[in-house]
Amino acid sequence: MARSTSKTHASRTVIELRQKIMRGELKGGTRLLEVPLAEELAISRTPLRDAMSRLTEEGLLERVKNGGFIVRTFTFDDVIDAIELRGVLEGTAARLAAERGADPDHLDQIKSIVANLDKCFGERPEDVDFEGYSDLNAEFHSTLAGLSRSTIVQREVERVCQLPFASPSAFLPNRKDITTFRRSLHIAQEQHRAIVSAIASREGTRAEGLAREHARTARRNLNYLLRDDRSQIDRVPGLALVVD
Questions:
Q1: What span, in angstroms and rounded, lies between the C-alpha atoms of 31 and 151?
Q2: Which pTM value belongs to this model?
């Protein structure tokens, strides 16, 4: 019972610490001191250490040689590399799904997700269900990884997506900048359809290329946010960790 309670406390602490890092409350380079942090979060030091170890695996924290943890910082190139890696892994997942033959039920599932994504777009350009699109987009990418029938590929896709700026929904727009990103949303949805079509047709090379190109949509949106309109940076979780 005590072990279960400790796990619950650690899970809660992971969520709280992750949110503080994402919001920039714990800035990159900050040394996390166990005693004051445990007091702030009203938790004992053992589940706190477990939580910090978990966030280290996610890539948000880094162990220091003389003990303890610091909040990681990332360069622009790090973010680009993380997005590129996701594209490579998802491309591999799409190719394997096509070559091995996707499970019919799972294929129907991802087709249903694409159909529901279509419903997120209204008749007017500004009519977009952003929250629904974001949730379904994450579901699409998770299902795509599973179509590979490879637990290794699926696990590595999940791992890279834990980095906030590498997740499929990291750079989706909101109502404030729909005009800027409207075209990218429609292009992304067309790519969703094309990826599923290639997998269903057993076209491995095409499926891989489409999935890799799809990941680059996030890269283009990132370039806009960091190079052209930095006023939007605060809306993207984790970009507070990126240093110029």
A1: 35
A2: 0.78
